[in-house]
Amino acid sequence: MKRATDIAFRTACEAKKVVYTIGPLIHNPDVIAELDKAGVKVIESVDDISEGTVIVRSHGLPPDQIEKARQKGLTVVDATCPFVRKAQEYAHKLYQEGYLVVIIGDADHPETKSILGHTGPGARVAACTEDLPDLVHQERIGVVFQTTQYYLKCKHILAHLLMSSTELKIYNTMCSTSWLRQEEAIKLASEVDLMLVVGGKNSANTKRLAEICHEAGVNCYLVENAAEIDPQWFINGIRKVGITAGASTPKDSIEAVVTRLNQLKTKSK
Q: Which tens digit of pLDDT belongs to each residue from 73-84?
């Protein structure tokens, strides 16, 4: 995510015309506010502008939207996350090879939509087996993942697809950084009395971290910044607090949360 924001800030400094992103560059309100101050404006569609520079968000865009921007004469700067780019490429490869493509992810997430745009008619998106109620036996099924998926939650879908196909081809397109962060969150949650997850409430990987911590059996709060921390959370025997953060969370936001917790600790003495 830092790569995308660095590209956006650099583009804003170098561009001679207004800079836009179709949808938020990343799912973090504080970062989006800083980008807005730097001159990077969020729009909903290529149809909303007639000139300037368009930055492809970290979640990527369907190819037809990028082509539409170029046909309008807009300057296109691609900030697609490399992991998302790989998922797009594998999805397209599976489609070209004749597989029924199944994307394991959240259908409404912009990343999933961008991956879906690299496939053809008939591709499916599933976050659980219930999303594939009418999937009959297929000769060949190809699978890619929304990059922030939690692998343990995917096993039921994969088992269902295995039973529904003669040949199942899987490309592991999960983000290794998100995967490691999820594993670390599980371990940390087992060692503390309360977890704080720092990041945008509209961020898929941040929300997934909070879900994982809840499932680990520890009380957990998702905060976008230090100002959202409630001192009442830390009464009644809370002695150890763990902190984790989404991939799009700036280091400054995490440090501010740590500072706030230290202030509360000092006041409680």
A: 999 999 999 999
- Give CA–CA dist 111/248, Å, rounded: 14
- Active site (annotated) includes residue 111: yes
Residue holding tokens 């720092």? 198
Return the axis-axis angle of helices 2-14 and 29-38, rounded to nearest 10°. 10
Say yes or no to pLDDT of 269 above 60: no
User: Which among 34, 111, 139, 211 is annotated as catalytic?
Assistant: 111
Q: Read off the pTM.
A: 0.85
What structural domains does the chain harbor? 2-80 (3.40.50.11270), 83-174 (3.40.1010.20), 177-268 (3.40.1010.20)
The pLDDT of residue 1? 67
SS3 state of residue 124:
strand
Residue 1 near residue 59 (C-beta atoms within 8 A): no
CA torsion sign for 253, 225, 58, 4 is: negative
Pinpoint the alpha helices (H) of the chain. 2-14, 29-38, 63-71, 82-96, 110-116, 151-163, 176-189, 204-215, 251-268
